Amino acid sequence: MTAVERAFLSQVGELPSTCVFRGQGDSSWRLHSAATRRLIDFFNNDASILEKAIFSDMHWVYHRSVLLDPARKFGFGSEDGQMIPDIQLLAILHGFGAATGFLDFALNPLAALWYACEGDECDGRVFLLDLDSGIGFRRISAGESSHSVEEIFRWPDERAGNLYFEASVQEKNSARELQSESFSVQAWPLIPADAVRSVVIAATDKPQIRQELEELLDYGKPSLFADLQRFSVVNSPRLPIPQIEDPEFSLLLGNQCYLQGDYPGATAHYDKSVALGPDEDLGYFHYVRGNAKAAAGDLSGARGDFDLALCYEERLAEELAKRVDGPTNEHRLWNLYYNRGNIRAELQDLTGALEDYEEAIRIGIHDSIRRASNYLNRGNVYLQLCKFGDAILNYDEAIEEGSPFAHFNKGNVLVTLGRFDEALQSYDEAIRGGDRRSGVICNRNGVTAILNRIGGDGYVVDSPRYKDTTRRLIVEVSLRADSDNRYTEFFNFHGAKGNDGNSGGLNLPGGKGYAGKAGFVVVVKGEEW
To answer: Which residue among 135, 177, 293, 313 is least enclosed by CB atoms within 10 Å?
Structure first.
């Protein structure tokens, strides 16, 4: 039995005709496309980037900004005066060795075995991929003009699965051809693990297998290529990704920093997006940069970005309104008004905050969407303005929309107004709704103690006021008492839940919530009337 039979053929068994093969000289190498490997290197060889939701977007922007756009700029994107479709141009670049998101698989398993036997210092591996495995692969012509790079890598047809194609002879790099029919399979951005299995080739078997294969296969020799080859070599997986002057790629890098909590780093990348971005995207770039600044505590900077974003988005809204049945940007406008309202509230521009929340609510109603956070946050602003009736009305709206905190905040307002029975009901509702924070329990116990103290006797509640330098609200309750039974009791209450945080960008979490209302004190006095 030959080494080829013992080490490989006997291990794979009978295979379907739809099976293709790929050999890699190091068994530890993952089944990653050259584009994926290049992006991992770009992130300082941090393979965890593959697990980030943002990776697939980086993957397609890389194809557009590093490969296709520069190739067309250098004149490689047309033939006989006709523009070469993206899929065909990628196939050509891939054939010349550029780092694309495609992986080469051979129909001949022995060709794959040859590559698995490169290098004697470690074990190799042959991957077996069944294109009819049910995982979902679809064969296309490399010249299909209907497939743009966005359709291939950004919006793949999930029903049809990954694409694969057979490159034409002139698109193949004869230096690696091995006279074997091959297919290029799309790894978007990774080939599903369930679709492949593999056979490990021991390092000790490699020399003997290569000797046997040389007697069976006739390999092609390298040939010279035009400038297109040199362009592809510059973009091979062995070389680092060049500086990418693409606003969307900078946006993705900023998003990655944002998700990691590196807000200064996110802001720096967003700066580049703003500098490079076209006018129609600047509203969004300022929006996400404003969120990053807000998360870093730069509220004035965030306010400036939200102001600029609103200028761009309102202008865009006017343009969209002129189109019949065109798309709208009202969702983004809602987010911007809401976020700027939060910033204004935190900066104590309370009148401006109310204006922004009002506009966000108007847009939401027009969009048939009511958001609890808008009413909760507007109620908090009214509370700071001591407009207690308006605060209660907004908390009721927030409760109706499912806010988990509005019952608690409403209970606090009712306590300051001396409506203790209603306050107890609100705290109970908060607890029944799952809000079991220590402050809720403490305030409920406090109002219960007050009700036990005042009993059924008449009492008078003075208008709440700020009495001392602590800026805590003081609520005084006076009960009738005889001269021998005068007393003063203090009940400390936790302040209202603060504003819900900013609305996040696409696939990004919102910012943290803003400061809540300071705690307050209820003073119950027994005195002679």
So the answer is: 135
- Span 377-406, pLDDT tens digits: 999 999 989 899 999 999 999 999 999 899
Which of the four pLDDT bands, split at 50, 70 and 90, describes residue 73?
confident
Listed residue (340, 330, 268, 272) closest to 303, CA to CA: 340
- DSSP codes joined into one string, 236-284: STTSPPPP---HHHHHHHHHHHHHTT-HHHHHHHHHHHHHH--HHHHHH
The arrangement of strands across the sheet holding 19-24 comes to 137-139, 162-165, 182-186, 102-106, 19-24, 124-130, 196-201
Rounded Cα distance, 165 and 206, in Å: 30
3-class DSSP state of 466 = strand
Tokens of 233: 């070599």
Rounded to two decimals, what is the model's pTM?
0.71
CATH 1.25.40.10 intervals, the chain: 247-457
CA angle 83, 85, 87 (to 5 degrees): 155
SS3 readout for 65-105: HHHHHHHHHCCCCEECCEECCHHHHHHHHHHCCCCCCEEEE
Residue 190's alpha-carbon distances to 32, 36, 56, in angstroms, are 6, 8, 9
Beta-bridge mates of residue 490:
523
| Maximal CA-CA distance, the chain | 117
Work out whether strand 162-165 and strand 137-139 pair parallel, antiparallel, or are unpaired. Answer: parallel
Q: Which two tokens stand for residue 343?
A: 């910033």
> What's the burial of 374, exposed, middle or buried (CB within 10 Å: 0-12/13-18/19+)?
buried
Token pair belonging to 400? 């109706």
* Placement of tokens 């080469």 in the chain: 104
Which helix (H) or strand (E) segment holds residue 406: the answer is: helix 406-416
Fold category of 247-457 in CATH: 1.25.40
DSSP 441-463: HHHHHHHHHHHHHHTTS-EEEPP
Q: Is the bond preceding residue 404 a cis peptide, omega within 30 degrees? A: no
Read off the pLDDT of residues 420-451 as tens digits, 9 standing for 90 and up.
999 999 999 999 999 999 999 999 999 999 99
Report pLDDT digits (tens) over 181-221: 566 777 666 777 777 889 999 999 999 998 888 876 554 33
